[in-house]
Here is the input.
Amino acid sequence: MSKVIVVGGGPSGMMAAITASKNNNEVILIERNEELGKKLRVTGGGRCNLTNYRDIEDFFDKIVTNKKFLYSSFYTFTNHSLLEYFKSNGLEYIIEDFNDHKVYTKSGKSEEVIDILKNDLKDNSVKVIYNKQVIDIIVENDAVSGVILNDGQNIKGDKVIISTGGKSYPHTGSDGSMYDILVKHNHTLKKIYPALTPLTIKEHWIKNLQGVSIQNVEISCKIRNKKIYQVGDILFAHFGLTGPCVLKLSSYINKYVEDNLIELNIDFLPNTSSDEISKIIRENPNKNIINNLRRLLPQNFLKEVLKILNLTDKKANELTKTDEEKIISYIKSMKLTCNGTKGIKTSQVTSGGISVKEINSSTMESKIIKNLYLTGELIDIDAETGGYNLQIAFSTGYLAGISV
Here is the structure.
């Protein structure tokens, strides 16, 4: 039996603590907040998108950074392993096949997931220490031997698992302070970027579309001659763009947009051809263009486009071919300039973190410090939205828990 200290009571830390305790270890879980799973509580809009129902081999196409590192953890504890775990503990869930196969709690309450994990911690005699922050780890002869708390207390242990998260949603406790501690002990920190975050747009008129949402939009751009695109729903905001499609795109352009302007090309009707749009514009010659097009796109969006083109009051029979082509161009290939992101505080996930080259992907043990294990968002791994990041947290936590 080993004495295992787990730092961080999020999904990865709780899963690591549960698994380690089931392997006949004495486990202490240290959480800086007054409750466990604070960030987990707000995921999926509070509904808890706990994983995705795709085949596990399909997950790797959804990993943005360092997908190969996750082979061992994903195949050791798959999405179906996770769902079986929760099902066996009484959780009812639903699979939204129409929504990228996302898995949510049937009740729509993330508290059910947290309660199951908390009960399992209790059933396996995990000691939970609340409202204490680890401010350093104790390293002796290149091996970890304990942690130091913010009240000056030293807790000794044989193994330490760090699951403190990244820098996104800092109000939940994941403020990135553990990065500095690990760097002090010779780990390498890959630069931090916001991922799954809204994008800011240079064009000022975009604020006039605040609140307008459009489904099944295709957004594309080129970075170093490579085309990047995403399809999904978008929402206009006073600062620019958000919504699932935009959030996913942000994870692929976040490193580049920090120092460069990026031209976005937006097709608001990717499944409708230019010829079809032309016919709809012309189908009622005596009607205003907006009346003809509003079954395809929101009226407020059309009003703004036509205002920009000085065509607001035009009827279809008054429209020149050139003006028609301009309208279609705005609908099928609107050009907007992305000049940044909304930053780490509004990002759902942190991109960057402790280098995967310094972690054994088969055990999650540090290659720098013996008996130290790192899991979840703390590491330089991130994925698209859709339950993939939570699966990373659970899978890496589970792998660390069985490896201590």
Summary: The longest strand covers residues 213-223. The CA atoms of residues 271 and 301 lie 18 Å apart. The chain has two domains: 3-193+350-403, 199-341.
